[in-house]
């Protein structure tokens, strides 16, 4: 889980103030103990909750539509080898 990896990094680097933005409302609710955590995610959620007890973490939700550019860029990175450059972002989002 990407949030756990990021929080582990913050813990190692002694970063004490973190803003996490995610399009997964379910993950936010699990971290806040508002949703039941499935058995296969329990250990990860426990570690996340343990880390956020010791550092200041703000977790915010945004809609997937707001993440369209980031999703497209990640997909481009996975499917292309080498350097790719765009002159404008509207060409990326199509």
Automatic annotation (TrEMBL):
<dbReference type="GO" id="GO:0004523">
    <property type="term" value="F:RNA-DNA hybrid ribonuclease activity"/>
</dbReference>
<protein>
    <recommendedName>
        <fullName>RNase H type-1 domain-containing protein</fullName>
    </recommendedName>
</protein>
<dbReference type="InterPro" id="IPR002156">
    <property type="entry name" value="RNaseH_domain"/>
</dbReference>
<dbReference type="GO" id="GO:0003676">
    <property type="term" value="F:nucleic acid binding"/>
</dbReference>
<dbReference type="InterPro" id="IPR012337">
    <property type="entry name" value="RNaseH-like_sf"/>
</dbReference>
<dbReference type="Pfam" id="PF13456">
    <property type="entry name" value="RVT_3"/>
</dbReference>
<dbReference type="InterPro" id="IPR044730">
    <property type="entry name" value="RNase_H-like_dom_plant"/>
</dbReference>
<dbReference type="InterPro" id="IPR053151">
    <property type="entry name" value="RNase_H-like"/>
</dbReference>
<dbReference type="InterPro" id="IPR036397">
    <property type="entry name" value="RNaseH_sf"/>
</dbReference>
<feature type="domain" description="RNase H type-1">
    <location>
        <begin position="1"/>
        <end position="77"/>
    </location>
</feature>
């Amino acid at each position: 889980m990407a949030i756990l990896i990021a929080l582990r990094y913050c813990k190692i680097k002694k970063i004490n103030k973190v803003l996490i933005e995610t399009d997964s409302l379910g993950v936010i609710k699990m971290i806040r103990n508002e949703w039941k955590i499935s058995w296969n995610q329990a250990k990860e959620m426990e570690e996340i909750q343990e880390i956020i007890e010791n550092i200041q973490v703000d977790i915010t939700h945004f809609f997937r539509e707001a993440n369209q550019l980031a999703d497209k860029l990640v997909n481009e990175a996975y499917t292309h080898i080498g350097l790719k450059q765009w002159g404008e972002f509207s060409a990326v989002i199509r």
